[in-house]
Amino acid sequence: MAQTDHERGAASVAAIMLVVGAAVVLPVAGAVSAWSMARSEAAMIADLAALAAARSSACSAAEHVARLHHSRLAECAFDGTDVEVAVTVTTASAWMPTVTRRARSGY
Q1: Which helix (H) or strand (E) holds 49?
Q2: Angle CA(48)–CA(92)–CA(59) in degrees, nearest 5?
Q3: What number of CA atoms fall less than 13 Å from residue 75's CA on the CB side?
Q4: Is the pLDDT at 60 greater than 80, yes or no?
Q5: SS3 for 85?
Q6: Is residue 42 within 8 Å of 70, Cβ to Cβ?
Q7: CA distances from 56 to 27, 30, 79 (A)
Q8: Which long-range contacts (CB under 8 A, 24 or more apart) does 6-13 make?
Q9: Which of 63, 89, 94, 107 has a Cα at 20 to 30 A from 55?
């Protein structure tokens, strides 16, 4: 079959659109992935910090655990034998620079 003039270059346009679409979607997907991983990491560190603080009855233990995991203890408060901590983790994404998660533990 012979190509008509209006069909010439259609594959090139489609390929360019595919490349531009991928260039837009991939960085956004990477940022969402980094944020999701940082959120999970912060939750895990907050759990560990809360357990450490509850066992030792001191916020210094929670701060030590957070520091060991390259994060920051944002808050630590005791309510009787229970402790609630908040841990902040820095992400690799410029759109969401930090993630903070809370955890509670006690006896």
Answers
A1: helix 10-56
A2: 25
A3: 11
A4: yes
A5: strand
A6: no
A7: 43, 39, 14
A8: none
A9: 89
